[in-house]
Amino acid sequence: MPRHTPSLLIATAGLVALAGCAPTASSPEASTSTAARQCLFQNDVQSFRVRSSDQTVFVRGIGKAVFELQVSGACRDMDHAMGMAFWPQHGLDRLCTGDRTQIMFSGGTPPATPCFARVVRKLSEAEVAALPERDRP
Question: Do 83 and 69 belong together in one domain?
């Protein structure tokens, strides 16, 4: 096996992961699939709100984009979160609906530990407006 094979495999895996979020308009079904799989750049998150009763996190990206994340399992410091950070997965900055990631909350008892979350969906402007003020990022 050549010495460059592992790095080539890693690069190929990264490209395949990015291709999952890339828009394709070759058919009406493809454009519907793309619309259903909207993406958020982790570095563009401006604010967040935690609804710990059902382990939901709402994050606001640049502009009016608000995404719903669902946290799975026990997540330390979620109730007292003053800060939130994404724990980078595979070096990718983009999270699309359906993707899993890890997030960390700060503001509680150190040390902060990562939690698993899934990007559920991008909310429409009407859905964001309908959120109670305490849940709106």
Answer: yes
